[in-house]
Amino acid sequence: MDNAFGNEPLIPLLDYVQWLERAIHEIPSHDESESLIKNNFSSDARLQIDKQTLDRGGFLKFTLDYREKFTFLDYEFYQAASTANDYKGQSGTVGVGIKVRGQRKEDGKLFEAILHGIYQIEWLPTGRSGAHRRQITKVTRVLQGPYPVSFTPSRSSVL
Description:
With 159 residues, the protein is α+β, with helices and mostly antiparallel strands. It has helices spanning 13-26, 30-40, 56-69, 155-158, and strands at 41-49, 52-55, 70-84, 92-104, 110-125, 132-148. It is 27% helix and 47% strand.
C-alpha cells in the first residue's frame, strides 16, 4: 500500500498517515522501516517532536532507536482530521492523535505513549518521467511518554 504512480489509485490522506505510522514501527525489518521513511518523507523534511527539531536523518535515528527498545503491540488512532489541498486528495494536512502500546525488549514491561501530530503532505515529482508521489514535508508532534502501564486484574478476569 505505497504511494501511487501513474494511474494507480491513492488512498485517502488520513489512511496514508495511519498506514505509514503503523508500518514504520511494526514492520519486522529495520531496513524496510528505513526504506519506508526515505520513500515517504521528503529529503528536506522537518520534524518537530516537542521542542526537538529533526531532519529526516534525525527522525530515522529516533525511530530506529525506539524500534530497538520496544516491540510495538497496538496503535489506537483518535480525533483525526484531514484537509486536502487539491480536488484529487493528493496533498494536504492531517492531524491525528495516536495511543501507542509497546513492550520494552529489555525486561518485557508494558509501556504506553500518547502522540499528537500534524502532518503536511505534498505531491512531489519523483524524477521518473513526470511521475509524482506523496511525501511528508513537515511534521509537528507532541509526545507524552512512554510511561509504564500498570495492570491490575479485575475480579471478572480472575474468575
